[in-house]
Amino acid sequence: MQRPTLNETNLDPPEMMGFIMPRLGRAENSMASAAEQLASNLNFSAFSKAEDLKKRIWFTLGALLVYRLGTYIPLPGINPDAFARAFQGQAGGILGLFNMFAGGAVGRMAIFALGIMPYISASIIIQLMTSVVPSLEQLKKEGEQGRKVINQYTRYGTVLLGTLQAYGISVGLESSAGVATDPGWFFRISTVVTLVGGTMFLMWLGEQITARGIGNGISLIIFAGIVAALPNAVAGTLELGRTGALSPALIVAVLLVAVGVIAFIVFVERAQRRLLIQYPKRQVGARMFQGDTSHLPLKLNTAGVIPPIFASSLLLLPATVAGFANTGNLPSWATAVLASLGHGQPLYMLMYASMIGFFAFFYTAIVFNPKDTADNLKRHGGFVPGIRPGERTAEYIDYVLTRITVVGALYLIFVCLLPEILIAQTGVPFYLGGTSLLIVVSVTLDTVTQVQGHLIAQQYEGLIKKSKLRGGKKGR
Questions:
Q1: 1-9+51-229 belongs to which CATH class?
Q2: Cβ proximity of 139 and 146 under 8 Å
Q3: Closest by Cα among 433, 128, 158 to 308
């Protein structure tokens, strides 16, 4: 019952073609109703009987525990105290963003400091290239075999990006006074090998969680890294309330706002615009299948969490570069621009919102092609009522997708800017920003869906066994 994986990061959008295949007759309708009935009967007793699901959950927890232990193993050849002092000055830049995704491994410069981000970056790059490179586009259309080749290219890209990033980290560590205990080529090579090896191990661990756990291993690794620091953040906020730095009423109000935002994210992430698809009568051999109707679901937020990640990374890059450089030599206008790009500043808010909106439309155009969807519908005899198949259908789907993407972009902007406004106006150290909040909620929803899928599969197996036993008794 494995679902197709994106993002793996709610990180790749689901293949839309699987939703528009025609349903064949009453058999599938009865199967769908049976699935709904089974889903409504899921309870704790059904979970207690699902031995395979228990094993998958324990395997997933064990794998995530291994990941968390790796974030505390320091990189060989560095002075942890000196690095902690150097990192404090860069925690507000792009390093702080990477540290959040890596579960604090960057702040400790652990062997998993690169995290899974090189794999995510390589996946996005390959996905973008499939839209502009004809050979990769053809591979994408070849089904499972083509997907395996694309995954192999993604792994090669992960090694390349990880090597470049690890070498840059090694040079940066050497340039910081007292961080590298023995600077030189041996330190650089060992750093590159260790960090790239850590990333490849995490990539393998994510694939194992997907295959032997409860699915979407890469997303769960990022999820575990983000929520790992949540207890300390909550404890720190409560400590501020105890000392009087924050009023208890303000803390309660922020918690209520956070709960409301999470409920809003759940509602929007599950929202779909369903286009009615009709299929005419057709004959297969001697059998005549009645015409049927189906739906083409278009997610309100097709781009997922990619727009906030891109936007925050680009906005934090100037501050990070300025932090490594000598800001005293910068002209006055550059210093003013850097100050206005700080968290909570109006220019930062405006550019953040603009970039999120741009990347929402850009990434949606990359991952969903209305023309391919219309051609696939036409090939299987499906059509939108009142719309001519082919080019007219593609134009209609693009029209609907553009309208709902506007709503999805406004939703992303609201969710991502609200924590920034709360931090700027109230001073509350809101740990979960918009990007991390989206990832946490999306991965949680997907994990719950995976667990329900395993439970439904287990109940189906039980029904099949009972029917076989009954058939055997009747045969006797």
A1: mainly alpha
A2: yes
A3: 433
Question: Residue 126 corresponds to which amino acid?
Answer: I
> What token pair was written down for 398?
């693009």
Greatest extent of the chain over all pairs of C-alpha atoms, in Å: 93
Give the pLDDT of residue 296: 85
Angle 229-109-94 from CA coordinates, rounded to 5°: 70
Among 17, 26, 27, 22, smallest CA distance to 282 is for 22
The confidence score (pLDDT) of residue 17 equals 33
pLDDT at 115: 85
Cβ neighbours of residue 374 under 8 Å, at least 6 residues apart?
389, 390, 391, 393, 394, 397
How far is residue 411's CA from residue 407's CA, in Å, rounded to a whole number? 6
Locate 229 and state its tokens: 């620091």
Distance separating alpha carbons of residues 269 and 261, to the nearest angstrom: 12
- 282, two tokens: 């057709």
Is residue 283 a contact partner of residue 24, using CB atoms and an 8 Å limit?
no
**For residues 150 and 116, what is the distance between their CA atoms, to the nearest angstrom?**
18
**CA dist., res. 167 & res. 188, Å (int):** 7
User: pTM surpassing 0.90?
Assistant: no
Alpha-helical regions (H) of 270-390: 306-324, 332-340, 346-367, 370-379
Handedness of CA 362, 435, 441, 72 (dihedral sign): positive
Contact 226, 440 (CB under 8 A): yes
* Contacting residues for 256 by C-beta, under 8 A, at least 6 apart: none
**Helical axes 230-243 vs 248-269, angle rounded to 10°:** 150
CB 291 within 8 A of CB 284: no
Instruction: Report whether 130 contacts 136 (CB < 8 A).
Output: yes
Sequence spans of domains, the chain: 1-9+51-229
- C-alpha distances (whole Å) from 432 to each of 148, 179, 214, 281, 441 are 35, 30, 24, 52, 11
Q: What is the structure's pLDDT at 469? A: 61
End-to-end CA distance of the chain: 35
Give mean pLDDT in consecutive 10-residue pieces for the chain, a chain of 476 residues. 39 36 34 43 62 86 92 86 75 66 80 86 83 81 82 90 87 79 87 92 91 85 84 79 80 84 88 85 64 82 84 72 56 68 76 89 86 84 84 89 92 87 70 77 85 76 63 58
**Conformational region of residue 23, where left means phi above 0, alpha means psi within -120 to 50, and beta covers everything else:** beta
| Tokens encoding 451 | 């667990």
The β-bridge partners of 284 are: 287
Closest CA to 349 of 422, 437, 407, 403: 422
Q: What is the dihedral of CA 400, 445, 65, 50, to 10 degrees?
A: -130
